[in-house]
């Protein structure tokens, strides 16, 4: 499932002809951005979720891999070279292909928007996509981003710039695998393809102001204020304990 890479094709300026409200008119194959019925992101409303406690923890097997960091203009993408890391859902293995960041967060929880959102994008050989979303609020520095600081600084001046970062271990992105929201939605950028399996981790992690600023500077800040005003209601299934706080 291809995600548009060229920043010049779309942007996040609500007043632009290439802004979010016009994405569906830019290319015929992007029609779902305008007419889709399962579009992401959404507002995760705890009072509307269906608790399914027997889902169990996330079945993840991540391993180190060489990786490339790329400034895509609308975000920063870390692409893994090896196909050895995967997420398993209902017996199907989704290989971890890349991860990228959005600030502020695209998903909200009970109407609250967080400071940062990390997407770990997984795919099957047949093109099915599953994304894990991790939300962050301002606080202590994030260890994984700290490891990438020099590389992020190196690609911050030019859209399209790539940099090999050597071996990266995605296991260093530590998060609670037991409590999460799950729903079927879409890609959050063109072509906005649907039937994407979303898993949003309930626990909110920390990231420093400096790290958020570095990510914003790298993409000229503009793309990080994409706010979709309309959230389509989804039937959510969750493996969470609502008595435990998100800590946001």
From TrEMBL:
Domain Alpha-carbonic anhydrase positions: 8-248
Amino acid composition bias (Acidic residues), ranges on this chain: 1-17
Gene Ontology molecular functions: carbonate dehydratase activity; zinc ion binding
CC terms in the record's Gene Ontology section: chloroplast stroma
Enzyme class: lyase
Catalytic activity as recorded in UniProt: hydrogencarbonate + H(+) = CO2 + H2O
Record key words, sorted: Lyase
Record region (Disordered): 1-21
Superkingdom classification of source: Eukaryota
E.C. number: 4.2.1.1
SUPFAM superfamilies: Carbonic anhydrase
Compartment(s) where it occurs, according to its Swiss-Prot or TrEMBL record: Plastid, Chloroplast stroma
Main localization (coarse): plastid
Pfam family, one: Carb_anhydrase
Role according to the record: Reversible hydration of carbon dioxide.
Similarity comment text for this entry: Belongs to the alpha-class carbonic anhydrase family.
Protein name (Swiss-Prot/TrEMBL): Putative carbonic anhydrase
Species of the source: Medicago truncatula
């Amino acid at each position: 499932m291809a995600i548009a890479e060229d920043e010049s094709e779309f942007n996040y300026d609500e007043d632009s002809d290439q802004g979010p409200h016009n994405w569906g008119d830019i290319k015929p194959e992007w029609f779902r951005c305008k007419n889709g019925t399962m579009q992401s992101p959404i507002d995760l409303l705890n009072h509307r979720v269906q608790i399914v406690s027997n889902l169990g923890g996330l079945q993840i097997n991540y391993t180190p891999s060489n990786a490339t960091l790329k400034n895509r203009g609308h975000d920063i993408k870390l692409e893994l070279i090896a196909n050895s890391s995967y997420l398993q859902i209902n017996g199907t293995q989704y290989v971890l292909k890349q991860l990228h960041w959005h600030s502020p967060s695209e998903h909200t929880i009970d109407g609250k928007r967080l400071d940062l959102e990390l997407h770990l994008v997984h795919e099957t050989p047949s093109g099915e996509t599953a994304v894990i979303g991790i939300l962050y609020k301002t606080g202590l520095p994030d260890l994984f981003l700290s490891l990438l600081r020099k590389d992020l600084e190196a690609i911050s001046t030019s859209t399209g710039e790539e940099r090999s970062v050597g071996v990266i271990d995605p296991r260093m992105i530590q998060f609670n695998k037991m409590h999460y929201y799950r729903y079927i939605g879409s890609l959050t950028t063109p072509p906005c393809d649907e039937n994407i399996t979303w898993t949003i981790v309930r626990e909110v992690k920390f990231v420093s102001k400096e790290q958020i600023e570095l990510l914003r500077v790298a993409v000229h800040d503009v793309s990080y204020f994409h706010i979709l005003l309309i959230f389509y209601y989804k039937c959510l299934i969750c493996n969470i304990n609502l008595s435990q706080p998100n800590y946001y």
